[in-house]
Write a structure and sequence with these properties.
Blueprint (H helix, E strand, L loop, with lengths): L11 H5 L5 H12 L3 H16 L4 E8 L3 H4 L21 E8 L16 E5 L15 H12 L4 E4 L12 H8 L5 E5 L2 E3 L4 E6 L5 E5 H9 L7 E5 L11 H5 L1 H6 L4 E5 L5 H18 L2 H10 L10 E5 L30 E5 L5 E3 L11 H32 L6 H23 L13
Amino acid sequence: MLASEVPLALAPAALLAHALDPVAYGQTLTTQLFAAPALRDAWQQARALAHGTNRPLRVRLSLPADAADLHALRWETLRDPSNDLPLACDECIFLVRTLASSELRPVTLGPRPDLRTLLVVANPHDLARYHLAALEVAAEVQRVRDALGATPLTIIGDHADAVSRRATLPALHAALREAPTIFCLVAHATHTEADSVLWLEAADGTAARVPGHALSEMFSHLARPPLLAVLMACTSGGASHQAGALAALGPRLAQAGMGAVLALHDRLSLADADTFLATLWREVARDGALDRATAVARAALRDRPSWWVPALWLRMRDGYLWEASPPAATPGGVHISGSVGTVQQITVSGGNVGTIIGQQVNDRAALPPEGRTRAIAAQRTLLEAHRATLGHYLHQLALTGSAHARPEVSHGIAEARAGIARAKTALAALGAPADDHPEDTP
């Protein structure tokens, strides 16, 4: 166990002060999340082990289904505490959200289905009356078509190829009963005190404000909900209003039976939407691995300010949309089952107490020889790094003496020795115990 039951002290007010700056927001959130030395050290070990075994690091943020304040945080802006790089821009880190609830409808995966997508573009003709920008329906449809390629697409909205020219709730319900595998919604959404509101259309084309709970209830009554919902707001035709309200629907739709929900915290420019959607769908179509596909699609935006905007709520095991065998491990890959194997996944649970849990290395026989070699090398690298840090602080202590040492020196010594102890424990579990150094312990 790398770390367990580590208390977290999140300060939303401090985060709100950086709402317009995703870099500063992410740095502040990272500082709050990794304030505990044990948590930072656990992260560094997990990163080193994943790197040493040449496998991706799956990061699961397990949040209570009813914790709206935690869902509202922009977890996608988190940065690596070791190098200050954004996690969402790393193709080898699969950062997704999950719902910590036993009340969710089960997701039963079958073989790869015949993929079909339902696209709804809501563009009421009286949006200007409410100071909302009109959407360019043809451009939104073409963007999704380009991303999907040959995948069949059913359209609802003011488009020549639409099965319904009005994006009404009844039209949406009728199309969903045909069991599309992917549901994509492009619409305005706003917040109220009680709920998010979707701006769909009435039969006459005027705005119909549909509360989020009405949409989630509709999904909960479907015999076969879509595997994936994509909720988007783009800047076509002008700025979208309160696009973050779409993201607030993510956990609610997941609870309603959706396998996965990808929603936007903010607007995407047309160019960014083109890049993200095309990359996402190309990667999903390869193997159905949605967590990997999202990581790759986010990374495609790494040089743009919107890299943090897509948020993914995931309910399927292993991140797959359909029953599929994960890609064969490269030689030396690590087998993970229960509490066996090396750390490949970190779970951070929300609520009053945060927990970071890693798989314990306690069965070296489950590791292929080269995988064990890499895991040992990674732990030895950590051990030497902690010993180097310890040596630095011991040198500082020798220069000043115990009576005049700065507090951070004593703290650094204790933290380095704790890291040394953990690395030595892991090496012993791998059957490669490390030699003891006199400075390892007080």
